[in-house]
Amino acid sequence: MGRYRLGDIIRMTRKSLSITQEQLSEDICSVETLSRIETGKQNPSRDTYDLLMERMGRIRERAYSMLSVSDFQVLEKMKLFEDYIKLFEYEKAEEVLNDIKEKLGNSILDQQFLIRAENIVNYRLQKITTEEYLEGFEKAISLTIPKYGIISLSNWPLNFNEALLLLNISIAYAEKKDYDKAIDIIEEVNCAIKQSYMEEQQRVVMQVTNLSNLSKWYGLVEKHEKAIELAEEGIAICKKYKFGHILPNLLYSVVWNKEQLIDMGVMPPDTKRECLNYLNRAYYIASVMQQSFVQQFIKTHMEEKYYVNLNQ
Amino acid sequence: MVADIEMQNNKIGSAIQYFREIHHISQGKLCQGLCSVATLSRIEAGERDVDSFLLETLLERLGKTPNHFELILTDFDYISFQNREEIKKQIDNNNIQAAYNRLHKYEKIAGSKGTVHKQFILTSKAYLNELQGGSVEETINLLMDAISSTVPDFKTNKIKDYYLSNTEMNLIIDIIKRMISADMIGTAKSILMQVIEYLDFHHLAEDSYMIYPKVAIIASRLFMQSYELNKALEMCEKGIDKNKGNRKLDYLGELSFIKAQIMEALLKAQNKWVPGHKDCLKQYLKAYYVLEFCEEYTISDEIKKHLQEDYQWEGID
Asked: Where in the numbering of this chain does the HTH cro/C1-type domain appear (chain A) (predicted)?
């Protein structure tokens, strides 16, 4: 088999992102080690290689030259697992996960995946408490960020999986109704991902998801102006990147918070006209995006609050 | 993952073999127009120093998009990669002369190094011809030569016999678009039908939802022009359907608008249309809100005017 110069791959990827060796190596290996790896004087361990590439936003499933056939089979199952989670099919997800466990190795990224996956399944199947759920995620994140909880992550070069884990953690806090803590975490993540080396699409998707959650939670702690501002920021990103998937939620968040402000007498009653306009957009965009649940939800809201019948 | 596999081993050959076999594609089919079966066998067996652009195209034909740099093995690969990036950048920035200079340099080192390089060179020449105001016919000829370098019997209605990469597919769509603007409707249509048949037949590409809606827009417009309204509607709905699960709005506004127009035309043809028809109105509103959000104001204003005049609809502000 031909031999890949791993050092070259790391160096070329790093240079294409204009990052220094110091920035790339922090908490993964020493700068000297990275330098030796890049010049081919030393071979990186599997963990080091994976972590460096992950930090630079490379997508592991696409590393075709690095993976073996059994890796592909595991990665395909991991994808299937994520699909079941998205569909709320937790029993099926658990079955796939048991299958994955038999074949999974013990690299850091494998362990992180496993802890996160087991945690989600166990919680959704009501085998663990919210507390344990939270602890599980925190254990998973500590695998790649040992100083988690001690340092601020605002300047940390987060990779996509870490950002996803932190999103899971914040949602767990929100489920415990600790919205302030949930908000703190996501604010840090948003700050960090602006300067991370994540692939642009992944970063932007993460950003709008975060803004949508933040807006919802700020609304729940009655900081409505802030909630509106954040949702509008998310809407602007959707406009720039032509995202439709989360747009109805963001539009609805603006409306809901404005309605609270109208009820409180902070905003004039004729703001309702604007709200109705936003709801119309949200309704039709949800319809085009084939999100029937969201569409129905907005329709009901329009009927109950605005006496609009969309069937006429 | 399996623990500590030997890291430096090039596993790309077994990856290609694995994906080829799970999709039941013969070696001969996969490498048509790219390399010989003997070469593909050697690649799968793990031969070293294979051209990275050849590897990339083979993977793309299997519906996979590899990470940048990971396939690069030799200095030739790296220089080719840099040249290609520079040429693309200069074309995007409209620097025609700078792009030509780089292209000549690239042609000298890579022009005889296989069909994938030849394809890139011809494609770049076609776009440059367009940029400097050359004739559409010349652009079409160059693009046809480009696609024919990796799909040799492109002109003989055999697209379905191939497994095509997204690069090859986009090239074909570009040809169709130019043929339509050069009024070569008949030829454009026959290629388009092959593309649709191909897309319905093969489901390999991970991001086929990026291709299908594009094709659906072109096809439903063409069918509408020739009053084949049912066919137009079918294509349009397929395009919308394939977009499910995609987070982007890119093609949805246009597809929704076309669908509304077809629905209206169909009802009118059956004498069933009345001013303010509810289903049509709803379909137009879907299109309106997406296009307005995407700042496609020319079409959204057109819809608004149409709805005010023919649907007595004043509900948009």
From this structure: 10-48
